[in-house]
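## retry 2 of 3
previous attempt timed out at serialization; input unchanged, resubmitting
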Amino acid sequence: MAASESKKPLKKDIFDVLIEDHNHHRELLKRINETVGKSEERVALFEEFALEAKAHAAAEEQALYSTLMAHPDTTDEARHAVAEHHEMEELINELAETDMGTGAWLVKFRGLKEEYEHHLEEEENDIFPIAEEEFSDAEEQRMRKVFEARKPKEKSNATVGGETRD
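## retry succeeded, writing output
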C-alpha cells in the first residue's frame, strides 16, 4: 500500500467548510450574472444566494468571528469582517426591493457581486491565515461544529429582503 493510501483523510476544519460555502456563493453569483430580465431562473438563483449568504454570515459570525473577537490580536479583523457582512446584507435587501427586470437592478447586482467577491478574497487571504495561526486544531473543529449547527437554523430564519419572519 502506498504511503498516501495508508493515511486517514483529514477532517475538514472551519476554514475548509467556509471556503466550500464561498465557492458555492461565487458560483451562484456567476450564474445570476448570466441571467437576463426577471426570469424564473434569476429569481430562484437570487433567492438561493440571498438566503445562503445571510445564513452563512450569521453562522460565521457566531462560530468564527465571536472567537476571533475574544483574541486581542484579531479583534480588529473580526470587527471589519462583521461590518462588511452587514453591508452585504443591506445590499442584498436593497436588490430584493428593486425590480429585477431593470437596468438599475443589474447595476446594483454587479456592484454587490464585486463587493462580495472582494470580501471573500479578504477573508480567505487575510483573515483565515491569521486565524489558523491563532487557533488549535481542536478549536477549529469546535468552530466547524458550531457553524454547521447554526447555519441551517439561520437559513430557516433568513429572508430574501429586509422583512423579518415571525
